[in-house]
Specification:
- The chain is mostly helical.
- The chain has one domain.
- It has 4 helices and no strands.
- Helix 2 packs antiparallel against helix 3, helix 2 runs parallel beside helix 4 and helix 3 packs antiparallel against helix 4.
- The longest helix is centred in the C-terminal third of the chain and has 32 residues.
Length: 106
């Protein structure tokens, strides 16, 4: 009976890796598009680039940690599923607003 629960946990973790992990990759690509906004002339661009790197690195670490726990319960799986969807929506809206401000100012 113990072996069956371990197999179920591994199957859910494997399916999470196949289905939800591409959402995290898309989120990281979207965060990387913020690098297009910052001009080299600004003194704060250097700090902002490292901040974007740090955020994407933290998201990668969090996704791997949540992946390990996604097979333990349905709640963990839904948290692992909803985090990239919510972050993607939020980052996309902020990116659109930022691009619009950049277009207006130039």
């Amino acid at each position: 009976m113990q072996n069956c629960s371990e197999d179920k946990k591994e199957a859910i973790e494997h399916m999470s890796r196949r289905v939800v992990n591409p959402l995290y990759i898309t989120l990281i690509a979207l965060l990387s598009s913020f690098l297009l906004i910052y001009k080299k002339e600004k003194k704060t661009a250097f700090v902002k680039k490292y901040f974007i790197f740090f955020i994407t690195f933290v998201i990668l670490i969090i996704s791997e940690i949540l992946l390990k726990f996604s097979g333990l319960s349905k709640l963990n799986f839904f948290i692992y599923l909803l985090i990239p969807i919510i972050l993607f929506s939020t980052v996309y809206i902020v990116l659109i607003i930022t691009f619009n401000k950049e277009k207006i100012s130039s």
